UniProtKB/TrEMBL annotation:
Native source organism of the sequence: Linum tenue
Domain of life: Eukaryota
PROSITE patterns recorded: HELICASE_ATP_BIND_1, HELICASE_CTER, Q_MOTIF
Segments of this protein annotated with the region Disordered: 25-75
Basic residues bias locations: 25-34
Protein name per the record: RNA helicase
Residue numbers covered by motif Q motif: 170-198
Known EC number: 3.6.4.13
Domain called DEAD-box RNA helicase Q: residue spans: 170-198
Length: 619
């Protein structure tokens, strides 16, 4: 195609362009009054090229030598300093907050894929509207003015975030649960919704994605179990699940015991429903490691179809990989203790599970601890999410009286016996590792205490189940356990939690002491500390105790907070460290982040080494 005449731009040869550039530079320097050495190229300039330069100032002034008395302009460095002085002063706190935002942004954008299936990412599928459910709150709630809704939320310390948030509903009957469900709630002694249920249930029943944050023992389980049963019921009435189909809803829990406990809760509601005339049979399957569920898989999934699956990530991944079950029609996904599932060791498996989801689903995340970084990351996978929080994420349950005592390492085991006298059983004693659990358990048995032990994967599943069942049934007085029993487990009426070892991460402390003081009851927690704990851990503990208005022991009171903690307790640090939730330090000095980074670095190094074709033995 021929160019129009006025669009034509004359070609300027490279040599000529260079000459023009050199002349421009020369003129600039002359204007600034700087001497410039003649270069070969500038010498080559002809007068006619100088006149062609549109940008150059009028030649008369340009060619004048600089006035001797004119002051040279300030250097760039001086200009920058002057500019900085003119800017309003930024406080140290603001600087820290800015730094933290940058660290979080960096963590969030460091090549981490959002929690979506590979096909969704590849096809660029992004859902924008929540899935409809057909549930609506009664008219009087829908007509409730927003000030009244806010007043109810304020009364129960509920903080909500999101668009078009459904109103809080103050009783189960108004939530339109069918009679068999209301009957089970009555039998369980559950008459009124807890704050997280009051706001969380209408949100989930409306089909909205939700992040639910509320302290340990505040009744989060029902917020995802009851709406899931409602969805299964509705779907079953409309189009029954057939052989090989399902599940419609999936609940993922980080530990086998928590999955079993949640499965039991689901079954408590499903069993009476199946006996009621007019209600269909809804089927639930438990998928956890350490048990052989081939029979259930055959009888439930293959022969009849399944509505609800409660599983741990590992077993679920296995069942999906072996095509024992598919998530084609799964439209409801809950991650309980979600911060553990979307971050850290479980992240890859959770991603795998997301890969098997075929369509849009309602996604729910629940936990008592949810650092900002995990929260932000998880939110990206949700559709128009609503965050419902009751209290600060990571705060200790206020119904637990927290006592912290300085006990020397060698005196701990003897003092434990004395400590057990503080309350009647049942008591849970938490230790850092399996070896400590065995040592404490043996000691207690020798001293005649009716104790049972529970520790990680090295323990046979049948022994784990036996230990938990005996303790739950009240047949054992003391459970000595590792952190494996710290999350989500709902042992009835625990009187006292003893932290024989203070955990390094404050989140684990919050979960551990949360085994007592559940659902309105008061509990006691005693924690042994000594020189084995890092100062950061102790500072986190100190601030957590301060937040819960507990007595601060002298050893913690004496700890001096670093200078940068000048902003602790202000709005800037109200949520704690963005990486681990600890109140006593900032993300810039987070030990968990440092540990994770050094682990990543180590794994990268080893990968480089083996990738380069070296032999381990020969180095
Ligand atoms: P979380 O998951 O928040 O730690 P759970 O859901 O395990 O707490 O509930 C803790 C205990 O409280 C359970 O024994 C449960 O039956 C009971 N519970 C749940 N909701 C209520 C309620 N509205 N009123 C009384 N007790 C309840
Ligand atoms: Mg729970």
């Amino acid at each position: 195609m021929e160019l129009e005449e006025d669009e034509y731009v004359e070609y300027v040869p490279v040599a000529k362009r260079r000459a023009l550039e050199a002349k421009k530079t020369l003129l600039r320097h002359q204007r600034k009054g700087k001497p410039i050495r003649d270069t070969g190229s500038s010498c080559a300039l002809g007068d006619e090229t100088l006149d062609d330069d549109d940008d150059s100032p009028p030649s008369s002034s340009a060619n004048k030598p600089p006035a001797a008395e004119s002051k040279p302009p300030p250097s760039l460095l001086v200009q920058a300093t002057q500019l900085k002085r003119k800017q309003p002063a930024i406080t140290r706190a603001e600087q820290l907050v800015q730094q933290e935002i940058e660290i979080i942004q960096d963590l969030l954008s460091s090549g981490r894929k959002p929690l979506m299936s590979v096909s969704e990412l590849a096809k660029g599928i992004a859902y924008t509207e929540p899935l409809p459910t057909g549930w609506k709150p009664p008219l009087r709630y829908r007509r409730m003015p927003s000030e009244d809704r806010d007043a109810i939320r304020k009364q129960w310390h509920i903080v909500v975030d999101g668009e078009e948030i459904p109103p809080p509903v103050s009783n189960f009957r108004d939530m339109k649960f069918p009679d068999p469900i209301l009957e089970v709630l009555k039998v369980k002694g559950i008459s009124r919704p807890t704050p997280i249920q009051l706001q969380g249930l209408p949100v989930v029943l409306s089909g909205r994605d939700m992040i639910g944050i509320s302290s340990t023992g505040s009744g989060k389980t029902l917020v995802f179990v009851l709406p899931l049963i409602m969805i299964a019921l509705q779907e079953e009435w409309m189009m029954p699940v057939g052989p090989g189909e399902g599940p419609l809803g999936l609940i993922v829990c980080p530990t086998r015991e928590l999955a079993r406990q949640t499965y039991d809760v689901v079954q408590q509601f499903l069993a009476p429903m199946a006996e009621n005339v007019g209600y269909p049979e809804l089927r639930c399957l438990l998928g956890i490691g350490g048990i052989d569920n081939r029979l259930e898989l055959a009888s439930v999934v293959k022969n009849k179809g399944v509505h609800i699956v409660v599983a741990t990530p590992g077993r679920l991944k296995d069942m999906l990989a072996k095509k024992k079950m598919r998530l084609d029609i799964c439209r409801f996904l809950t991650l309980d203790e979600a911060d553990k599932l979307v971050d850290g060791d479980f992240e890859d498996v959770t991603r795998d599970i997301f890969d098997h989801l075929k369509g849009q689903r309602q996604t729910l995340l629940f936990s008592a601890t949810m650092p900002t970084k995990v929260h932000e990351f998880a939110r990206r996978a949700l559709v128009k999410p609503v965050t419902v929080s009751v209290g600060r994420a990571g705060a200790a349950n206020l119904d637990v009286i927290q006592e912290v005592e300085y006990v020397k390492q060698e005196a701990k085991i003897v003092y434990l016996l004395e400590c057990l006298q503080k309350t009647p059983p049942p008591v849970v004693v938490f230790c850092e590792n399996n070896a400590a659990v065995c040592k404490v358990h043996e000691y207690l048995l020798v001293k005649g205490v009716d104790a049972v032990s529970f520790y990680g994967k090295e323990m046979e599943q049948t022994d784990r189940d036996r230990a938990v069942a005996l303790f739950k049934a009240g047949k054992k007085d003391v459970l000595v356990a590792t952190d494996g029993a710290s999350k989500g487990l709902d042992f009835p009426n625990i009187q006292h939690v003893i932290n024989y070892d203070m955990p390094a991460e404050i989140e684990n402390y919050v979960h551990r002491i949360g085994r007592t003081g559940r659902c309105g009851k008061t509990g006691l927690a005693t924690t042994f500390i000594n020189s084995q704990q890092s100062e950061t851990t102790l500072l986190d503990l100190k601030h957590l105790l301060q937040e819960a208005r507990q007595r601060i022991p002298p050893v913690l009171a004496e700890l001096s907070d670093p200078v940068e903690l000048g902003v602790v307790g202000t709005a800037a640090n109200a949520d704690g460290c963005a990486y681990c939730g600890g109140l006593g330090h900032r993300i810039s000095s987070c030990p968990k982040l440092e540990q994770q980074r050094s682990q990543q670095l180590a794994s990268l190094r080893s990968r480089d080494y083996f990738g380069s074709g070296g032999y381990r033995g020969e180095m």
